[in-house]
Amino acid sequence: MTLMQLYYIITISKTGSLNKAAEQLYISQPSLTNAVKELEKELGIIIFNRGGKGVTLTNDGAEFLLYAKEIYGQYESVMEKYGKGGSYKKKFAVSTQHYSFAVKAFVDMVKEFDMSKYEFAIRETRTWEIIHDVSTLKSEIGVLYLSDFNRKSMMKLFGSANLEFHHLIDCKAYVYLWKNHPLANEPSISFAQLDGYPCLSFEQGENGSFYFAEEILSTNEYSQTIKANDRATMLNLMVGLNGYTLCSGIICEELNGSDYKAVPFRDDDQNQNSTMEIGYVVRKNTILSKMGELYIASIQNYLDQNGRNDGKNSLENR
Q1: What tens digit of pLDDT does each residue of 10-37 get?
Q2: Contact 163, 131 (CB under 8 A)
Q3: Chain centroid offset of residue 313 CA
Q4: Which segments in the chain show pLDDT lower than 70?
Q5: Residue 85 has what pLDDT?
């Protein structure tokens, strides 16, 4: 088995066609077919189903593709770090919960590179999709949070997906709302004060559960709830309906503007505050690319630079 054969498999799976893959690889279709057959014989599996409309992965092939992507991705990372470079466009992608600081760090990282030589992607998406994206190498890094409530279940999922979690910052819950909300000027806000205002949360899809919720204290019972799919819609709902969400308190006014505020959540006996441990996941035993290293450094630098010295968290994540 060679790296070239792995690259052939990856390219064929992307195009869904031996002919199209051969064109992209600048080799003849018979040569490509023979290379695949030799690899299948060596491995003792069938990787592709061949048909009149192209090729599709078998179950064995789909599993092998994950390993092929991981091995070839590591090769690219090593060559990027130690080689003289190649003609291909290097790729880097991040999947993240809806954190503006994650987008800000991505912007800062991208500015350090010639964008004509790279393919960058950032996906603000659902929690389950973050795990899936990193597990399947669609993204190199996934940004999300753990709490006492979801930690056990999430760590089990990380283990099943061959991921490892790395700590970035701990923060308490904040109430995030429009600056002209009736409660915006309160020094802190209790759960009782929020009754009568709609609680906003990000929709998690068919795989959604309390464990995947982006908002802390997701198991509380709210009199009014509205789910949204993107950050812009949630901000509009805050203005139009005096809605609010519970978050980490990490703000990036450069991206979100100054029309929103984060007010500390005041807990009580029935509604205890909880710590959010924000961090990132990567595939186990992987070497971060140069972009990945710089991205994590950019996030950490932002979190370090925007903290207060009085022990309170001045940051805000929506």
Answers
A1: 999 989 888 888 888 888 988 888 999 9
A2: yes
A3: 23
A4: 81-89, 207-210, 218-219, 256, 271-273, 307-318
A5: 53
pLDDT at 207: 64
Query: How does DSSP classify residue 211?
Result: G
Query: What letter does residue 95 receive in the DSSP assignment?
Result: E
Alpha carbon distances (Å) from 170 to 194, 218, 266, 299? 24, 18, 17, 14
For helices 18-25 and 29-43, angle between their N-to-C axes, nearest 10 degrees: 110
For residues 9 and 249, what is the distance between their CA atoms, to the nearest angstrom? 45
Rounded (10°) angle between helices 29-43 and 3-15: 110
Whose structure tokens read 């597990």? 135
Distances, alpha carbon 246 to alpha carbons 64, 86, 292, in Å:
41, 46, 29
Could you tell me where the beta strands, DSSP code E, fall in 48-198?
48-51, 54-57, 90-96, 118-124, 141-146, 163-171, 174-178, 189-190
Cα 259 to chain centroid, rounded: 26
Query: What's the pLDDT at 188?
Result: 94
Residue 142's contacts (CB-CB under 8 Å, 6 or more residues apart) are 94, 95, 96, 130, 131, 133, 134, 163, 280, 281, 282
Handedness of CA 139, 141, 147, 150 (dihedral sign): positive
Pair 181, 252: CB distance under 8 Å: no
CB atoms within 10 A of CB 42: 10
